[in-house]
Every structure is written in C-alpha cells, then in structure tokens.
Fold this sequence. Notes:
single chain; alpha+beta; FAD/NAD(P)-binding domain; Helicase, Ruva Protein, domain 3; six-stranded antiparallel barrel; five-stranded parallel beta sheet; 13 helices; 33% helix
Amino acid sequence: MGKVLVVGAGPAGMMAAIKAAENGAAVTLLEKTERVGKKMAITGKGRCNMTNAASIPEIIQNIPGNGAFLNSAIRFFDNQDVIAFFEDEGVPTVTERGGRVFPASSRAADAVEAMLRRLHELHVGVRLRAEVRDILMEDGRATGARLSSGEEIPADAVIVATGGASYPRTGSTGDGFRMAEAVGHTIETPTPALVPLETEEEWPKELTGLSLKNVRVRLFSEDEPPEKLGEAFGEMMFTHFGVTGPIILTLSRIAAMYLRTHEFISAEIDLKPALDEDTLEKRIQRDFEKYKNKQVKNAAVDLLPARLIAPVLDLAYIDEAKPVHQVTRAERLRLVEALKRLPLTIVRTRPIDEAIVTAGGVSVKELNPKTMESKLVRGLYFVGEVADVDGFTGGYNLQAAFSMGAAAGTWAARSVEQVECES
Length: 423
C-alpha cells in the first residue's frame, strides 16, 4: 500500500487526504496547530460558505486568480460533488442569495466535523502539532517530510496544503511558500485579496460602522485621463481605517495589485446608482420643495443616512446650515455630482494577515492542472491557497480548495499504486 503524506489540515488538505485514502493509499495528515480545519471553521462568518450553485464556467469566472487553471480540477470534483459529499456525511445544505451554499445548520463546525469523521472512518493518521520544516527529496522525487522536531516521515507522495499567508492564527503563515521555493518552485508575490481598504481621507473613519446598501463603487487609475479598473454593486461599510464590506472585498484584489506599483488608487461611490443625473436632480428638487423652510442638512434626510449628510454636503461645497430656498442650481448640481461620484483615495490595503485569502503563491505554470502535481518534482503536489489561485467571496475559494484537494489526493494515490506495481 503506497504512502501519501498530506501537509496541512485545512479544507484542501482534508479533502486530499480523504480522496487519497478512498483510492487505497495509506495516508498521514500533518497539522501544525492543535486542531484541523481552523480556517474553515471561521469561513462565511462561522457558517461555512462551502461552494456556490453557479455553473462551472461561472465558478471559474469568479476565480480571478488563475481560475482557468482549475477547469479540469473543478470538472473532476464540482459543486454538486461537494454538496453530495457533505450531505452523505450527514450535513444537509441550503442555497441562499447569490447561489451561496451553506450547511442547513449554519454551523461551519458541522462541516469540519463531517470531514474529520470521514478521515477517521478511512483510518487516516491525523497528527496535530506536527510542523513540517522541509520536503525530503531523492533523485528528483519527493520522499517525505522533515518535522521541526527533526523527525523524518517517509512517503511515496507528498501533498502540500499549508494555506497562504492570511489569518496566520489558523496556521497559514507562508510555510508552504518556503518549502516550495526550497525545491525550486517559483513563488508569485503573495498579496492580500478579499481585504479591507485604507483611505487617505479622514471622513470615512468618522462614519465607522455605517453600512450602505445598493451602492456602486468604481476604481480608477491615477493616470490622466483615469482608466476604470473595476466596479462592483452591493453593500459596503465604513470603518476606523477606511472601507470594507462585500463589494470592497470584491474590488480589493484589483486595488492590491495596482498598489504594488502605484501610490494610490481613486475610488468613487455612486450612492444613487438607480437614478441618472437628471432624474436625481429632479428628486432633489422635490425634496427641497418639501423641506423648503428647513436648513439643507435637514432637507437631505430622505436622501441619505443621517451620518452621511454632513460629509456629502461638505464635498459638494454646500453650507449645511444654509436655508433650502437659498440653494442655487449650481449647488444642486454639485450635490448631484457628490451623490453620483463620492470620491475616495485608497492608499493601501489592510495587512495580509487580515485578508480572507492570499493572491500569489506557487506558480500554476509549474503544476499539472489535472493532477496538481509539480512539473519540477515527481510525487509532490500543491493544493489550496499555497498555489497562486484565489477567488471572490461566495463559496468560490472553498470550491477551489475542495476541487484541488480531490484531484491531488486521487491522482497521488493512483500514482503511488502504479509505482508500487512497477517496483
């Protein structure tokens, strides 16, 4: 029976170990922390958004970080396979807005426990507090791993699933990048993705906790004229450092990549995306007529959340104490401009250890897209965030992890069985 060693017990590593064991390998799963699935247990705000019900092309489209590389792996183990796996293990699922799939219990722990049960059923040896320092090599082939204690564990194949560099308290501290580089792999620069953004302006920080729904955010380059780099519609929130929320996280990958070589990126918030400028001006006129005897700040109560009125009027150069009947058309047009293009200057992302996922990692050009095996080292596989793959929120990152893990585990077990038969 061939031996497969899996390094890292996150979603990709656990799935790899399960599939390797189901395909007849003797599997050992090493985890550096005190329990398996630590990051998986906090995904989806503790609910575990395990996949998305979208079509495979849509899933790939929502993985901006080398989604096309995953085409074979996702077709090998797709979203329906993920749902069937968990339901077979006693975790019924529900599909919510945007195709997001969760455990019906809304407990991420149920999904983690189901995977752990399956590992035990398959007699996978799970070793906790077992930190790997090096991949062992012989004649261009992976032959096991050396722990930080100095202990060497032999294997016929090694699957590295150590995660990226985000959420280090869950065990993702970039170890896999170092291991991969040590055996000759190229590491694409790790960059935070799905991460909040910091602003140069102070006024967003004064609105900490204020959420905006149904707004549109656009990002622009610092060129003249500016080039639109991306946009997203939905919900966002102001924080003590700038902005966060679903659409900010979606756009953060673009911002992070741009800020690697530029000092800032310009953003605009369209607070009224459903209204064109003419319609919005007429709406403002109606509101001002309704509140014609009030000050401007009190006439905007139907237009904006109370805490946002002062910053918007300030950016429109309108005195908030000015009587409504004294507001000029030029001032109204400036207000329209502020509502449609509320400006922000993004100067940096939050640190990578606050990111939900890491962009960058082991270059996918050096991995077999069908099996996840290294093209440089036989018997060595890389799965999950340690590889240069990352997706948007909505279940896409966990789907990628499960698909990569399932492919690597299956093919690693089959390859070691073949090696045994030939020897």
